[in-house]
Design a protein that fits this description.
Chain lengths: 103, 639, 164
């Protein structure tokens, strides 16, 4: 059976929703970041899949995916730096305990 | 000269306004301005008299208003009657004004006194100069106003305030009748000019009962102003005013205005059928003369004696006019003005020195106040009717006419003459004879007061001679009413009247000077008569019960109506609006404010609820975003 | 056939550790299970004939980022133990949202006809093509991305620095 575009889309959708679930429900800040990585990867899969099936002669999807990877790296770095800094000040990395901005 | 006669009333009128506005800053605090105006007027009057003696008559008119097709004209006239009246008012007035400088010295409202007196002079002169009933009525009201103002000059005294009100109200009753009479004439003939009215009477357009009614209505005004019975009650109380006021207004001039009115409109009275109007005038005058004289006997206040004497003498004048003695009445008016003014001013001099009006506290003043005594004696002799003094000639002429036309009134007049002499010499003996009955230290009055007294005494002594028969009674030829004729001088009658006067003086001396009969024994002997006289024939009590009380009661009822019904209605309206305002307040408070507050409450509550969305946790926000996306996608799919 | 089998295996390799990542109570275990997921994605890239991207994926994602995550877990208290509750109170709604979103997206994808190209061959050396693309069509993107990298480097250092 041929692997079509749809298959990849299904996988990326599931991966994305798993990542979303992780972001919405995890208390640990690092776990949230992991969920974000999952979502980004799902997006990347989409990009490359579309590149392969819709416009195989070009490499724009690859370029975009590379950019996304790069930005994911930056964002992970910054995010984790923030977690470090927050841990130093607030003594916790459970985000539901960091609610100073609440009503 | 006559064409400038209009200046005569204008001068004191200008003086009035000058004193009202500038008062104390004027020379003599206004007195000299007033006196100056009067003296100029006196000179003008003398000039006019000379012209009138030469037979000049003058009239001038101008149109004041037009009522439909009847124009109202005002103007003045100069004829012998007017000339005589002008001189009386201005000469006597000037002397009284000069006297007032001394009498009113130191009074806090000194300028105001002279303002009122000037206004009075202007009104009286207007009255006398008028050639139509309307302008005469204007002057009439003016003198009434000034009388009110001057009687109540010392208005801090409740007696003075009441007296001025009584004077005004009583004369108002008379003025009402007079005004109705004027209206009657106007609506019958259509004019108020004297000469046109007289033409109408002669032409028969105003005749019969209408004429009598008109004449009697006009006489009503005279009854009030000249203090005839029954409207005489105000004059004795008017003595509350300053003595020069009493002299000028209530002796010499204003009260003579009624006599002048009858004299001026004599044709109306004369032409009334059967002389009805004249008979009424005569009897009113005669009764007044006798009644007032009898009251004068028992008065202890020196000014009250004068007041009742004035009422009595005015009665004589009316009686004289009523018995066809036109000249006699006017003549007596002129002589009376001089000697009554003299008597009042002299009485004022006594009061000024003794600081009391009561004769009970006087006595023996002859030595202390010689000039006052001598001048007062001259005045009393004139009043009593002793020849050759002025009063004799005029009173004798009245009695003469009465003898010829109405013997009953002649007897009345004769008895009155006896009583007149009695009371006036009672006054002389009580005041100047005997010994001083109080602890006061009187002294003679200053020259500014005694000099006018002397001048008036000279007039009182000699003015009557213009009516003497030796040179054919020139006054009679000067001021006469042709149709009335005139009685010839009767020596016998003259002797009778003189004897009566002397008898009166003798009787007074017997009781009060030689004290052969004590006054106390007379009082007990005539007990009831004495009580009647002391209570002034109960006229005041009658009026109080019959008129004053009902009027006050009616006023009270009306006041109750006003306070409870009218004010109640107004207050009710107010209360209704207050309730409405309260309702509006409630509405404003709960509905309007409620709406505004509701908005605020909504914002607050919404915010209060929505704030819980700010959990401070980004995961919650992200969840909302995710849910929102889901909803949008569903929406997109379904569409 | 073979492609399909590879696809299936790689899918499982991706999804099952991903489930572990988002549900494990042990933070270290979830960080470590990220690795097979990322490697599975690499396999997908190879399957999709994106070799260069696959290489970069291994290098950056499975290598640097995972290590970074583990470092941070170590430096913070992440590995304290199983006693700490790892999930918050949003579980029901979170599950609902994720499931629904998945369902909806799948629905949308299944209904859409994709413009699948019938022909066209991918370039022989994808690295060469990508390099050319970066230097010509996407040079601006390239420059900006490098700037972002620089800024994030500096920023991360500054944020994570210990205050003295």
């Amino acid at each position: 059976m041929q692997v079509g575009l749809g298959h990849y889309l299904v996988i990326s959708t599931l991966l994305f929703c798993l990542g979303l679930y992780g972001v919405l429900t995890r208390r640990n800040a690092v776990a949230i970041l992991m969920g974000i990585e999952l979502m980004l990867n799902a997006g990347n899969i989409n990009l490359v899949a579309f590149n392969r099936y819709v416009a195989p002669a070009t490499v724009s999807g690859h370029v975009f995916a590379l950019v996304v990877i790069t930005l994911a790296a930056c964002e992970a770095a910054i995010g984790l730096a923030l977690v470090m800094s927050a841990y130093r000040s607030l003594e916790t990395i459970h985000v539901d305990e960091i609610n100073v901005m609440k009503w | 000269m006559a064409q400038y006669a209009w200046i005569i009333p204008v001068l004191p009128f200008i003086a009035f306004w000058l004193i009202v506005f500038f008062g104390r800053r004027l020379p003599g605090e206004g007195a000299y301005v007033a006196i100056g105006a009067m003296l100029i007027d006196a000179m003008l009057s003398v000039g006019l008299l000379v012209q009138a003696l030469g037979g000049a008559h003058y009239q001038a008119n101008f149109v004041w208003a037009v009522l439909g097709n009847r124009p109202l004209e005002l103007g003045y006239q100069i004829d012998p009657l007017t000339a005589v009246m002008l001189n009386v008012v201005t000469v006597v007035g000037s002397l009284i004004f000069i006297y007032s400088v001394g009498y009113m010295h130191g009074d806090p409202r000194y300028p105001r006194y002279f303002a009122y007196m000037s206004l009075f002079a202007a009104s009286m002169l207007t009255l006398v100069l008028a050639n139509n009933l309307l302008l005469l009525y204007v002057g009439w009201e003016g003198v009434g106003l000034c009388s009110y103002l001057l009687i109540g000059f010392w208005f801090e005294r409740p007696a003075a305030a009441r007296a001025s009100l009584k004077a005004f109200v009583t004369t108002r009753v008379g003025d009402l009748f007079m005004f109705i009479g004027i209206l009657l004439i106007f609506f019958t003939i259509g004019t108020l000019q004297f000469d046109e009215v007289f033409e109408a009477v002669e032409g028969g357009r105003l005749a019969g009962p209408t004429l009598t009614l008109a004449a009697l209505l006009l006489f009503g005004g005279a009854v009030g102003k000249s203090a005839q019975v029954p409207l005489h009650v105000w004059l004795p109380d008017a003595m509350e005013g300053p003595t020069p006021v009493s002299a000028l207004i209530h002796a010499a001039t204003m009260v003579a205005a009624g006599v002048y009115l009858v004299a001026r409109t004599y044709l109306l009275f004369f032409a009334s059928p059967d002389h009805t109007a004249l008979t009424v005038v005569a009897y009113v005058g005669g009764i007044t003369a006798l009644m007032a004289a009898t009251i004068g006997i028992v008065q202890d206040d020196i000014k009250r004696v004068m007041a009742y004497s004035t009422i009595s003498q005015l009665g004589y004048m009316m009686m004289g006019l009523g018995v066809l003695g036109y000249t006699a009445g006017v003549f007596h008016l002129m002589t009376h003005a001089f000697f009554k003014a003299l008597l009042f001013l002299a009485a004022g001099s006594v009061i000024h020195a003794m600081h009391t009006n009561s004769m009970k506290e006087m006595g023996g003043l002859a030595k202390v106040m010689p000039w006052t005594y001598r001048t007062m004696l001259v005045g009393s002799l004139a009043l009593a009717g002793v020849p050759p003094f002025a009063g004799f000639w005029s009173k004798d002429e009245i009695l003469l006419e009465a003898f010829h036309h109405n013997p009953a009134l002649f007897v009345l007049g004769l008895i009155g003459a006896f009583i007149t002499a009695f009371y006036i010499f009672r006054m002389i003996f009580l005041t100047f004879g005997g010994h001083l009955r109080s602890a006061a230290h009187p002294h003679e009055s200053p020259g500014v007061m005694t000099v006018p007294l002397v001048i008036l005494a000279v007039f009182s002594a000699f003015i009557g001679l213009v009516g003497a028969p030796w040179w054919d009674n020139p006054f009679h030829h000067f001021v006469e009413f042709e149709a009335a004729g005139g009685a010839a001088f009767d020596v016998g009658l003259a002797l009778v009247s003189t004897a009566v006067a002397l008898a009166g003086i003798f009787a007074a001396a017997a009781v009060y000077y030689w004290k052969w009969i004590s006054s106390a024994s007379l009082r007990t002997a005539f007990g009831p008569l004495y009580t009647l006289l002391v209570h002034k024939y109960y006229w005041d009590e009658l009026y109080a019960r019959a008129i004053v009380r009902p009027t006050v009661w009616t006023a009270r009822q009306l006041r109750t109506f006003d306070v409870y019904v009218i004010d109640g209605f107004v207050n009710a309206v107010g209360i209704v609006f207050v309730w409405l305002a309260r309702l509006y307040r409630l509405f404003d408070l709960y509905v309007v404010d409620g709406a505004v507050n509701l908005l605020g409450w909504i914002a607050k509550t919404t915010g209060g609820v929505l704030r819980y969305m700010q959990t401070g946790r980004p995961q919650n926000y992200l969840l909302v975003i995710a849910l929102g996306v889901i909803i949008l996608v569903i929406g997109g799919i379904l569409r | 056939m073979g492609e399909f089998a590879a696809f299936t295996i790689l899918s499982l390799l991706i999804l099952i550790p991903a489930v572990v990542v988002v549900t494990s109570k042990n933070i270290v275990r979830s960080a470590l299970s990220l690795v097979p997921t990322l490697l599975g994605v690499t396999g997908f890239y190879v399957l999709l004939q994106a070799e260069f991207v696959a290489g970069i994926q291994v290098l950056i994602y499975a290598g640097a980022i995972t290590v970074l995550l583990l470092f941070v877990i170590m430096l913070t208290e992440g590995g304290a133990g199983l006693q700490v509750r790892q999930v918050n109170e949003q579980i029901p709604l979170g599950v609902t949202a994720a499931v629904w979103l998945a369902f909806l997206l799948l629905l949308v994808f299944s209904r859409t006809t994709w413009p699948v190209a019938q022909r066209g061959n991918p370039p022989a050396y994808s690295a060469l093509a990508i390099g050319n693309a970066f230097m010509t069509d996407y040079v601006l993107v390239f420059e900006v991305t490098s700037l972002v990298l620089l800024v994030s480097l500096v920023g991360a250092i500054i944020i994570a620095r210990r205050e003295e």
